[in-house]
Every structure is written in C-alpha cells, then in structure tokens.
C-alpha cells in the first residue's frame, strides 16, 4: 500500500477549488434552478524556467601560456648568464693582462735604471715572478742577498711578489669555498673562513676594481647561505662603480644568487635606480631586468588573482613596447579569468598580430566567441589550419556543439539539439557536461519519464539546484509531484524547494491561495536554510524559484471580519410569491495553519407585505376579512470548517463541513448543514456535495405561515440534496461542464417532493488581455419536480417546482486577473426557456384539528396547469476593491428574468477588515451569492 500523506489545507469550499474548473455557479436567492452555465477555463499558469545548459568545457590554454612565458624568461635568463659570464671572463682577462703589463713595465724600468751600472742582474727574479714560481723566487732572492749583501731588491720587484702572494691567497680561499660540500654546515663554515679572512684583509681586491672577485665571492657566500654578507659585497658596487655595464651585470648575478623576488634584490635595484648613471645600453638592460622580474611574478601568479591583474595592468605599456606576444597572450588569459572579456580580446588580438603563427591567442579569441555565444565567429576561428590542428581545439569544438544544442533547444528543435549533444560528446564532452541540457531536451520533447530519470541521477550525484528543478518539473508534468514529495531526496533543499514551489503554483492556479501561500513560505524557508551553508547557492536558488512562486500572496491567510447587507426582491403577489429580504450580516474568518474557520450571523427582515385569506382558506373556515402582516424577523447563524487531505496515491481532496441554524417566523428554529468534497485532476475537476438547506423562494417556503384560528402552521421547507459537478478539458481552449443533482423536499404540513436537475455547458476561452478567463459557449439546463408546489394554500410549499423546465442559451463567464488591487467577475446568460407545471390539488395533507369538520371534498381548490416559454436572462456581477492594506469593499448584483418565474433581483454591499496587511485582491474575496460576502457556506456546490 502506498504511503498516505495528510496535509492541512485551505477551506475555500468547492467554489474556490473549482474556480478555474466548474465556474462560479450563480444560485439566485429565491430559486432552485440556475440559469448560468458552469463552464469556465483559465490557462494554467505554470511557467517553465529552463535552467541554462552547462556548456562550459575546461580550457587549459591559460596554463600553457603561463608555461610559455616562463620558458621565455628562462631563455632570457640563460642568455643573461652567458653574457655575465663573458663579462666576468673579460674582466679577469683584462686584469691578468694589466698585471703582466705591470710586471714587464717594472722589469724594463728596473733594467733601464741599472743599465751600465755594476751590480746584481735581477732579471732571473723577474722571470720567476712572471712564471708565478714564488717558492723558487724566494729561494733565488735569498741566495742573491747572501751573495750580494750590499744589494737591495727593487721596490717594484718586492711589490710584485706581495701582489702575487695576495692573488694566491685569494685564489686558494675562493677555490676552497667553491669546493665546500652542500648540506654539511660545519664543513661549509670551515671552507668559508679563509674567504672571509681575505675579504677582510684585502677589501680592495673585492671591490669595483676587482669586480670579478667580488662577483665570485658574493656568489659563494650566497650559495653557502650567507646572504647578508653577499649583499654587503653587492651593495659596494652601487651606485658609482664604473663602467655602468658592470653594475647591470652585478644586478643580473645578484638576481641569480639572492633570488629574483628577494628583499635584497629590491634594495640593489633601488640603489641603482636612485643614483646610478647609465649609458644607453645599460639603461636598456636595466629596464629589461625590471620587466622580466615583474613578468616572472605575473607568470607565477594564479590568473584570477588580484596580483596577476595588477601586474598585467602595470606591465601593459612595456608588453606593447617589447611586442611580447607570449606576455600579451598571458595578459589576455588573465583578463579572461577576471571576466574582462573586452580587454582580453584586445590582448589576444595584439598577440595574434605580433605572433601570427602562434595559436594560443587564437584559442583565447575562440573562447571569447564561445562565451558570447558567437557561433559564427567561433566557426571562423576553428576553420584556421593552426587552430584546427591544435589538440586543445577539440574541447572547444565540444563546447561549440553544446552551444548549438542550447540554441536549438531555445528554438524548441529538441531532436536537433539532442544530435548536437551527441556530437559534443564525440569531441570529448562528458555525459555530466551534456546531461542537464539533454534532460531539458527530453523534457521539451514530452519524454518526461526519461527526463526525470536523467535529472534524478544527476541530482543524486551532485545536489545542484538546476538538476533539482528539472527533476521536479518532469515529475510535475507526469502528475507525480505528490509521489516525489515523499521521497527522501525531497525532504531537504534544493529539491524540496522546487517541489514546494511547483505545488504552490498549482494550488494558486486552482485558486487554493492559502495553501499555496503556506507552500510558498516553505520554499522560501528552504532558501534561508541554504544560505546558512552556501550564500551563493541560496542566491541562485532564490532567483530560480521566483519564476514559480505565486505573487502578491502576503497576508492571504490573515484573519478578517466583514460587515454589510443584502437587499433582494422576488416579484409576485403580496402574501404569496412576493418576498423582499433585507439582511445585515457580520462574518468572521480565521485560520489555524491552513485550516479555515468561518462564522456568519445574519439578521433577516423578510417582508411578504400583507397576507390575506385566499379562497381555500375561506372555504375551510378562515374569515374572508382576515389579513396579517407578512413582515417577519429572523436570525441565521452558520459555522463552517474547510480543509483538505493530501492522499499521495489519490491526490489532494478538499472538503468542507458547515452547520447552520435559523430562528424566527412561524417555523421557529431549524438546524441545517452540508458536506462537500472535490478535486482537480489532469483531465479537469469534480466535486460532490450533500446538504440540507432552507428553500428561500418565499416566506412560506423559508419560515412558514400560520393558519389563523388553528394554532398551527405550514411551510418551512427544507431541501435535502445530493449533487455532483465535473469539468472536462476537451482541448487547450475548449472545456465542458456537466452537473447533476437529486433533491428531496420536506416541510411542516407540506406535501413532500423530489427533483432532478441537469446542467450542461461548453466554453471557449478567448484569452483576452487583463482577464484571468473570458469564456463564451452554449448552455443547457433541465429541471424536473415530481409535483407542482408553486402554490400557497395549506399543504403546498410555495416554491418554483415545474414538472419540466428546459433552457438553452449562450453563457459567458469572465474574471479579471488575480492578485491586483481590484477584481471583477461576471456571469451572463441569455436564451430560451420552456416550462410546464402540472395541475395540483389543494389540501394535499390533513387539516388541523380546528378545521377537522370541514368537508374537504366540498372545497373547490384545484390549481390548473400552465405552460410558459420565452426569453430568459441572468446577469450576475461581483466586484472587490482594495482600499488599503487592511480594508476591502465589495459588491454583488444579480438579476434573473425567466418565464414562469417572473423577476428576481438582489444586491449586496460589504466592507472587510484584515487583522494583518494584505498585498492584493483574489477571487476568494469575491462574493459568490447574495447571502455570503465571499465563499459559500449554505449552497450545493
């Protein structure tokens, strides 16, 4: 057995339940047959807001461009390294050559100074120094001094010996530091000690004049983790070491040693920028070094980061100046990551101009065309051989196919859209990427079961709002929202939100506004709960739900109190058929959740003018001079409860139970009541009702008349009914109604009666602007009573009861739009009526004891039959207007002219106060008959 879900809902009675189905059946206040057809139709307002297709195919071109820029930078760094190495070698060679020249010059000078003088020949010593044979030089110098005690070595010779020893110490310290093992801190520290000592002892040998040793020493210190000491050496070069090319070379070497992004490097660049004087070549290299450093950071940054965007904007003039195609392409991808497609397009176009053969920029332009859904532009780019041959274009071809599929879906060419999705999958799109649009195509094709299965699988895989929307819509189209609503997945957002929203929309369409509002609030609560965990998802969900949630329902469940009056008049002879009714009334309405309670009190003034003794009364002994006032005061109290059951397997069943009491007049006190139930289905709607209500045709039938001189009364007729109504949707614009009713009539000292009524109608909806519906169509009414009770003598009921009444005509029903500041409804019918009443005998029941002696057979009181035919017309107009957020005013007018029934008219005026603010007026606020300000409590449905 399927589980049953019971939910409390609105009690609008079936008039509201069938507001778009069976119509507003306009019962007159004084007759049992309605001449207004029950057909009306409104197009169901469920709007399908198709979720966007997920046509995004992941594109990795941006990452490849980053790598390309980084490769270009590495290439330039290698070029710089080679250039700086060459500069270092040139510096070393120049110094070596300078030393040799100094040695030769010193030796020659010494030779010239001693030429022609007796003394020691020091040329062998110079030769040993030139050969850097220092040990042999020291030995030879010692022997020479011993041999020539009075000889003093030349200063130049000794100075050269000191210089070479210094060079030797420095070279050994550099070599030892360079041979240090990585990872061995103790060994590294020991290896660096000689280097630090020579730097301290010979500072001039690690300065601008010996920049080759400065570069080498700083490099070794940095490599050993002595960055601060390396920075000290580098700093000594700036800002006045000449030539300027050596300073620029120092920057490039420091960049490699200290790190391009280090704070030390920033200091060196700041020193050079602040005080360095550079020649043109050095200036060009200095600017390029700064550009490459910034470009390195840009290539390393995440494209969608603020850092990447700032660097792109900062480097834009230099990228253009260098015509750097790779950097321009990277700038385009960064702009694209920041959703600046116009700027990205400019960069891609520049890059294409500077590097026509490169496809990275073309792929960027392709992505922009696809994001703009420029299918023709994307096809043009894909036609280029380089782009077509690139493996990365395959993913974009898949995306292009998905865009075609999306466009075809919007054109409602669902079969072609499905073929395009198949093509997208051949190009690499995954079923997850094509699944949503495939589901919408299946939905649009009417293949709801397949669509539902696909959306359900996607939703279970990943709880996304768009798949929840598709699943709910598909099940709604299948008529299975109740079944979906009890599934475990539908017990939480976002699926629960869509189920509630669609149910709310359906209930709104069916005029069940209070429960529609309850479900609307439930859907909105789902959005609020989602916002606690994911604000972005909640925002998207709320935006999507707006297309399904009814509008202007705020305050629809507000308690209210209404007061007003009804004035009605039924033409006829005084004291008999004629009745004028004035009925001030108060009605209160309140809610408990979605259950509705109504309490109505009416003070009735019934005026039949003067009652006289007719021929039958005189014949049984009532004085001919008898006359009495036909004015009677009475009170009427009704209470009703409206609710519904949601049976999952059967759908929503609405019901109403009402109980009423009337006191006053000859009949005293009477209790009445009724039950009704109904439902809307895919094919239309139905309702059934049973009730016991007063017959309000005349004072006799309603409250009864006293028989003078007897202490008894007759009349006070009640109508016990069973009825069914149905509406069938024959097509999009045509609908048909069929209503049938059986009734039994009983009263005090009145002959019983039975009747059958049948109403058939068809209506065409003209869909006029500003109207909720506007229908016109044929109508047929048939009414039959067992006997004629249209007389007023003792034992007869005094109500219209033909043995045959047939009406055929044209009927129209209309109502202005729901949810506005005012609303107007109308029921109009015009046609031909033919009726016949059989003859009836008088005194059909026994006389009171006071007249027991009367010879009934001697009383000639038979009533002959009658035939009537002619045009009939029935007009009913109702209006409600919103005066403020808490006040409404309403009115109803009703006119019915039918052969054999004379003339009937009635009017109603009321005001209504709400205890909470109301946003708008709805059809449930309209009066439905001339006794009730809104809704129905005491009529068949």
TrEMBL record:
Superkingdom of this protein's organism: Bacteria
Q: Where is the Cellulose synthase operon C C-terminal domain?
A: 586-915
Leader sequence range is: 1-31
Q: Which UniProt keywords apply?
A: Repeat, Signal, TPR repeat
Protein name according to UniProt: Cellulose synthase subunit BcsC-related outer membrane protein
Organism encoding this protein: Herbaspirillum lusitanum
């Amino acid at each position: 057995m399927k589980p049953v879900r019971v939910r409390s809902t609105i009690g609008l009675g079936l008039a509201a339940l069938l507001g778009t189905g069976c119509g507003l059946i306009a019962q007159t206040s004084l007759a049992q047959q309605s001449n207004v057809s029950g057909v009306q139709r409104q197009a169901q307002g469920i709007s399908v807001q198709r979720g966007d297709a997920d046509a995004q195919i992941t594109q990795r071109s941006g990452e490849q461009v980053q790598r390309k820029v980084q490769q270009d930078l590495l290439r330039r760094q290698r070029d710089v390294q080679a250039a700086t190495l060459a500069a270092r070698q040139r510096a070393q060679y120049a110094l070596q050559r300078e030393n040799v020249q100094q040695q030769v010059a010193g030796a020659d000078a010494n030779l010239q100074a001693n030429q022609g003088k007796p003394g020691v020949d020091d040329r062998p010593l110079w030769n040993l120094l030139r050969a850097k044979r220092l040990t042999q030089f020291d030995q030879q110098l010692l022997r020479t001094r011993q041999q020539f005690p009075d000889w003093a070595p030349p200063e130049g010779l000794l100075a050269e010996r000191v210089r070479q020893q210094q060079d030797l110490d420095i070279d050994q310290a550099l070599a030892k530091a360079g041979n240090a093992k990585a990872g061995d801190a103790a060994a590294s520290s020991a290896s660096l000690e000689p280097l630090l000592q020579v730097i301290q002892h010979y500072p001039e040998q690690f300065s601008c004049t010996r920049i080759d040793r400065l570069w080498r020493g700083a490099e070794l210190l940095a490599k050993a983790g002595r960055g601060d000491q390396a920075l000290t050496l580098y700093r000594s070069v700036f800002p006045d070491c000449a030539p300027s090319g050596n300073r620029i070379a120092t920057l490039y070497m420091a960049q490699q040693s200290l790190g391009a992004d280090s704070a030390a490097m920033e200091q060196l660049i700041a020193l050079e920028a602040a005080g360095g004087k550079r020649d043109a070549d050095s200036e060009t290299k200095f600017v390029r070094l700064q550009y490459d450093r910034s470009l390195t950071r840009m290539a390393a940054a995440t494209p969608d980061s603020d850092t990447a965007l700032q660097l792109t904007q900062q480097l834009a003039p230099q990228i253009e100046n260098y015509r750097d195609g790779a950097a321009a392409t990277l700038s385009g991808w960064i702009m694209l990551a920041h959703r600046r497609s116009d700027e990205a397009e400019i960069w891609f176009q520049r890059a294409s101009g500077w590097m026509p053969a490169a496809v990275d920029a073309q792929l960027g332009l392709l992505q922009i065309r696809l994001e703009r859904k420029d299918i023709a532009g994307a096809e043009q780019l894909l036609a280029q051989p380089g782009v077509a041959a690139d493996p990365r274009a395959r993913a974009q071809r898949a995306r292009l196919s998905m865009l075609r599929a999306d466009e075809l879906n919007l054109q409602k060419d669902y079969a072609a859209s499905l073929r395009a999705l198949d093509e997208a999958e051949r190009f690499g799109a995954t079923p997850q990427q094509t699944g949503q649009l495939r589901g919408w195509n299946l939905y649009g094709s009417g293949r709801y079961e397949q669509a539902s299965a696909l959306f359900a699988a996607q939703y279970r895989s990943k709880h996304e709002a768009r798949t929840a929307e598709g699943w709910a819509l598909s099940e709604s189209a299948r008529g299975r929202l109740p079944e979906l609503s009890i599934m475990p997945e539908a017990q939480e957002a976002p699926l629960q939100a869509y189920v509630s929203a669609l149910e709310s929309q359906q209930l709104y369409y069916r005029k069940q506004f209070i429960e529609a509002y309850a479900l609307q609030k439930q859907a909105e609560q789902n959005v609020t709960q989602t916002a606690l965990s994911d604000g972005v998802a909640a925002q998207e969900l709320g935006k999507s739900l707006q297309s399904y949630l009814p509008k202007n329902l705020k305050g629809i469940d507000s308690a209210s109190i209404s007061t007003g009056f009804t004035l009605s008049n039924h033409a006829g002879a005084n004291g008999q058929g004629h009745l004028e009714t004035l009925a001030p009334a108060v009605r209160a309405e309140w809610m408990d959740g979605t259950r509705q309670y109504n309490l109505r009190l009416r003070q009735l003034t019934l005026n039949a003018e003067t009652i006289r003794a007719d021929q039958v009364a005189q014949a049984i002994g009532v004085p001919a001079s008898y006359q009495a006032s036909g004015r009677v005061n009475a009170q009427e109290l009704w209470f009703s409860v409206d609710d519904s059951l949601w049976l999952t397997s059967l759908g929503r069943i609405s019901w109403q139970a009402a109980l009423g009491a009337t006191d006053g007049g000859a009949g005293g006190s009477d209790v009445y009541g009724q039950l009704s139930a109904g439902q809307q289905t895919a094919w239309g709607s139905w309702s059934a009702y049973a009730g016991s209500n007063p017959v309000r045709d005349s004072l006799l039938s309603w409250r009864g008349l006293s028989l003078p001189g007897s202490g008894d009364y007759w009349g006070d007729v009640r109508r016990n009914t069973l009825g069914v109504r149905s509406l069938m949707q024959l097509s999009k614009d045509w609908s048909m109604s069929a209503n049938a009713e059986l009734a039994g009539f009983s009263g005090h000292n009145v002959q019983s009666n039975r009747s059958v009524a049948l109403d058939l109608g068809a209506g065409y909806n003209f869909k006029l602007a500003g109207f909720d519906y506007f229908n016109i169509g044929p109508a047929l009414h048939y009414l039959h009573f067992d006997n004629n009770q249209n007389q007023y003598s003792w034992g007869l009921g005094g109500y219209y009861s033909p043995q045959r009444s047939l009406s055929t005509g044209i009927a129209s029903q209309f109502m202005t739009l729901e949810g506005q500041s005012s609303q107007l409804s109308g029921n109009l019918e015009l046609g031909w009526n033919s009726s016949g009443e059989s003859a009836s005998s008088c005194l059909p029941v026994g006389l009171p004891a006071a007249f027991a002696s009367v010879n009934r057979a001697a009383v000639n009181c038979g009533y002959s039959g009658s035939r009537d035919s002619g045009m009939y017309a029935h007009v009913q107009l109702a209006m409600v207007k919103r005066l403020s957020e808490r006040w409404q005013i309403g009115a109803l007018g009703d006119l019915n002219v039918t052969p054999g029934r004379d003339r009937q008219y009635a009017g109603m005026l009321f005001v209504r106060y709400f205890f909470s603010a109301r946003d708008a007026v709805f059809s449930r606020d309209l009066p439905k008959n001339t006794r009730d300000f809104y809704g129905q409590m005491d009529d068949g449905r």
